[in-house]
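Thread: quick sanity check before group meeting

JM: Hey all, I'm pulling together slides for Thursday and realized we never actually wrote out the predicted structure for the chain we discussed last week. Dropping the sequence here so it's in one place. If anyone has concerns about the input, flag it before I start.
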Amino acid sequence: MADGSQDFEHIAFERRGQIALLTLNKPERLNALSSSMRDEVEGVLQDVRADDGLRALVLTGAGRGFCSGADLAAGAAVMAADGPPEPKDQNGRIDEMGWVGRWATMWADFDKPVVGAINGVAAGAGLSTALGCDVRIGSEQARFKSVFIERNLSPDSGLSFFLPRVVGYAAAADMIFTSRAVGAEEALRIGLLNRLVSAGELVDAAVAYAGEMAQWPPLALRMSKRVLQHNQDASLPDALRYESQGLEFSRRARNDVKESQASFREKRKGVYTGT
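JM (edit): ok, ran it. Output follows.
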């Protein structure tokens, strides 16, 4: 598993106990998403998911921005030099979603809790990235903006899926149709932020927030996320069936089943291993 010793060009990784801290690290571009940054993030998420010692992830940005969206300057340079890159294989030639779709599904498919630590502007695909987090904690510098319509674009990167599920249709329509910026206080009021702290406390507060989740049985935690995501669009009978399935998976951690019962009886904090 990544331990922070790897050489990354556009991200930084740190392990804080059971919490993975991933920082988008291209502050001179407000952490705009280039293809190399996306590749590095994808690799780290795969490693974190496979590491049973890591139970939650905190995502933040370096400098003044969380993420300003797609790196349009890098994309324009590629287009000017060579035109659109040719797909490398058959999968690329029949790819229906492009990188924006793969980026959105990558966050949706990651089954450990993700806490977004929103330190500045989250715009365009950066807003979608923030929404791909399960919860968000922000500083007074947090700012959210759709921006797509300003580029003669309709939403992509999952924004039209994530945003109304977080704030409701009308608030999502307001943000997308007007492209106005939503500041930290309003974001907290409408549900874009779950918590608001000072800028100097943000990362430590986000790690502590993730720790509130990581203290619980890890298999039950992962299944809780799967069940919650699946059942957003399920009928009640389907949701109940999926909850029953989730309970069965959670109980496969037999030692944690025993520990949860023992800690309840003994009125102490449980110590869970995922086994």
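AS: nice. The mean pLDDT is 93. The chain has two domains: 11-214, 218-265.
JM: adding both to the slides.
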